[in-house]
Design a protein that fits this description.
Layout (H helix, E strand, L loop, with lengths): L11 H12 L7 E2 L25 E5 L9 H14 L3 E7 H4 L10 H12 L3 E7 L21 H15 L6 E6 L13 H18 L2 E10 L12 H10 L9 E4 L18 H4 L6 H7 L7 E3 L11 E3 L8 E4 L1 H16 L4 E7 L28 H18 L1
Parallel strand pairs: 2-3, 2-11, 3-4, 4-5, 5-6, 6-7, 7-8, 8-11, 9-10
Antiparallel strand pairs: 1-6
Helix pairs in contact: 5-6, 6-7, 10-11
Amino acid sequence: MSEQSPRRQRLVVALVALLVTATATVAGVRAASPPKSGTPHTTWAAPQAPPPTAGRLAFGVSYGDTLLFDNDHNLAQGLDDAVALGVRWIRLDLSWEDIQPDTPTGYQWNRFDRVVNAARARGLNLLPTIAYTPSWARSSGCRAGQSCPPANPETFADFAAQAVERYSPKGITTWEIWNEPNIKPFWEPKPDPAAYTRLLAVTTKAIRHVNPRAYLLMGGLAAVGTDKSTGYVSQTAFLAAVSELGANKMVDAISYHPYTYPYLPTDDTTFGTAFQRISTYTSDNLVAILEKYGTPREPVWITETGAPTNGPGAAADGKTIPPNATDVTEAFQAQIATASVTAAANNPHVAAMFWFADRDSGTAADRAFRSKFYGLRHNNGTAKPAFAALQSAIAEYERTRHG
């Protein structure tokens, strides 16, 4: 929940060295590259990484669109939190609407530049999620705001290419294309596997024209059941539909959002939690779909998971689940954080796990909005127990798995 500038040939050697350093730290990052326009582009090279089973699990924090609009203090604290947690990645929106809000010729890269520079100064890798359509680029028939797909996918692809052109020299080689395209709130007026595949096809081609070795993720799939009344298509049904059209072979990894609350991600249930549906729940799982369509070793990046606290309803505590439960206690959120690391580390198909989010965006007055309370910190900056729990779990993983 987005800016541009080609480089001269004389900088290639130094920039390639920067890319090697930035990408060699994490398993699962391979490569890829953008544009599609007729102008020449610099080619950026990054090393191939081993498959996820052969390397270190990557950890990150997912911030949505918050960092771009934080003041200097909150931006610094948010990124310092990532360092303190022991993660090496941050995921944030590269919103097309933020960068080109008004016209196809005007760009506002400054906010994203600021975050990129601050993150790279701390040694953090960035996973930008390229998404969200400005009003001038939407179909005239779509009235749902930035979640409308672009009227012309090529226009979106060209924007993605310019972003890759701009940020490859800063060491950004990994990109996610759209967010939760399988649910109505993020693809209006309803999910459309064919339309998303068309967008993915032209965008991956454009990106790899700029950086042939960029590492590309399919847009993060929401873990939901198919429900026509809400405009939801399940993660497996959507993945099967786009893979039938070849989308799984256009990317290096798929992205997935397995929120499991009010259950633990390590729970073994008869109905199948979102974590179980990665690979262990009967045949209705993501890996089974990837195997069916010819990419059995394609890794899964968990680019969002977590649990909300302090929401509008009763809170599950890990022992009981009230009938109107909408969130979890802070103590149970901490248990979920620990179990998320365990579940991801024990699944050989998972290459990365990002926690959403760093800080609550709501206060007590916003209790009706569960989405505002996924943070490891309260809105006032004080840490919830989940912060220390996630920090400890990541440290234990690094100690026991990698010395």
